[in-house]
Amino acid sequence: MPVAHVKAGSAAGKRKATGIGPARRIAEELRAQNERFSAAVENMSHGLCMFDAEERMIICNRNYIDLFRLDAKVMKPGIRFFDILQHSVDIGIASQSAAELYAVRKPYIDGAKPSTYEETLADGRIIVISHRPLASGGWVSIYEDVTEQRGAEDELKEQHRRFDAALGNMSQGLLMYDADGKMIVRNQRFLELYKVAEADFPFGTTHRDALERLLELGIYTKIDVDSEVAKTEAALRAGKMQSAYRYLADGRTFLVVRQPMSGGGWVVTFDDVTERRRTEERMTHLAHHDTLTNLPNRSMFRERLDQALSEPKVAPLAIFSLDLDRFKAVNDTFGHPAGDWLLKCVAERLQRCLRSEKDVVARFGGDEFAIIQSNVRGAADAERLAKRIVEVIGKPYRDKGREMHVGVSLGIALYPGDGQDADTLLTNADMALYRGKSEGRNIYRFFEPGMDAMVRERRALEADLEAALPRREFELDFQPILDIASGDIVGAEALMRWRSPSRGLVSPEDFIAAAEETGLIVQLGDWALRKACSAAAGWPRDVRMAVNVSAAQIKSGGFARSVISALAFSSLPASRLELEITETVMMDESDTVLRTLRQLRGLGVRIALDDFGTGYSSLGYLRRFPVDKIKIDRSFIRDLDKRDTAAIVRTVIGLGTELGITVTAEGVETEAQLGMLRKAGCGEAQGFLIGVPAKASEMSRLLRSQEKLRQSG
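The line above is the sequence of EAL domain-containing protein; the predicted structure tokens follow.
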């Protein structure tokens, strides 16, 4: 209610100013003072209510009425305190009865002492009441709504709790410094990481103190404290994060990161990255070295060559490109493990042939090697090394009573005469190697400007091939696969096509080999896999997609992830994907190949052995590798009218039946061939008679037509 209704003010206002001048002045002064008091009370930010000794209200301000949602018409001077409490109960603002509320306040009224207490209203608000007795009896109360304040305090307490919980459960150690550079926060993980006590790093410790203490305790090896402090201060002034590795005396490595805070000071985190660093070092080594021979790989070789060519005074160099002769025969005869052992022996012999510590021998992959010969005084020096390599590599290799023989062909390019940069030198060394291999075995050839155009054409093909994928020059055709018994199309094989703007349609026989030699087959294979899965996802649910996979793809180490990614992206069920692998893949019995094939088959992906019967030991592969399908090579189907060939085909079909393996015949071109295969019990057929390779849209139309025939039949 307005304070202007105060009794004293009203009486003074009504009384006429009669008599002498001083009485009028007193009345006016009293009126002015009353107005000032009223204005002050009404403008208070809190509620105010004053009671006399008989517990009747003298005055109250608007904030008091609003705070308790009271009716201004009820709140007239003279209303009893208990009646106000009852009014608050009647309007539903009080959370207790009037008697209970009065019982709480009565001790404060009778005690006539200043006091403060709280009341929680029915709507959840919290009101702090300050009770102050008056000298003439009665009291005055000040009411403050502290709901938001308490909420903020509770939120702050919750934030502190969360902060403490986060600090206590961090995997990293943490220190926090204030704007004066004094430590104000330290978590338990920091003490655990450094194996120190709280007393070693009390609050208030400076960055310099902490570094010096770690040195004193023998935890850090020798570091320049002044330099470290200066670098930290410079980074903080610039507002930049600073990170550094710390190497501890016990062999561990910590990553220390300092992050400036907006209000001044900074936070430091400590992370034990010992195993991560060791893994990174191993990964770096693996990234630059061949895993089989531990020689530098192509990447490392290129770095060393670039480094040698970038020196201010580059000494003459000789670049050797090497390729083993008859290595495939060793693999075919003695198996892949023997081939690996032989490559290790070759690597050791090549290293022994080098004369300088600056010389580098690297393995590029397979049976390809390369050498950098430093400080070459002329072609004669390079020729001497080439002759020594041919002689040393050509000596017999004996292992477990077996004797193996391989030779080596070399191509040589000389710097600076044969090229000024790494690419040119390597290209010319390769051209010389190709020229040598075309002329025979166990020989070396120096690069000559007039080398065969065939070599240059091959290099041009490889360059076009490398640019073709980002230019989207590749496409897929699909050749249908027939279930011979039902006559239904049950799948299709994805066939890669390269339509070059300059070369036209390039035969797969030409570009697949080049892609395998350059390593591009991995990217091409991944592209084909994704494209094929996406196409098959739109086909009927019982139609499978067959995709050819090269040995290089499976050996890459990430092939299983590529398959899983392609299936996930296309939503194609794994059971509808069929990977066709050749004997070349089967010949590699490394852990990577075996693990990859088993992992994929465990996911439900089917494995088919392609070109069955053309290799040396296909039956052995069926025993070691659990395949789902074997594909009889088209060369057998072409000669199916010959008695001995027909017998072989029938045997393979019978073998598949006994092993529970699907048999697919490739290259079926005549009804006679299909009839013979049907009579022999062959499961599937593929070839021009069944359908020529076609675009995805044509394949989809064929499958839709088949689906309609099924539904109508």
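Note on the example: The longest helix spans residues 147-169. Confidence is low (pLDDT under 50) at residues 4-18.
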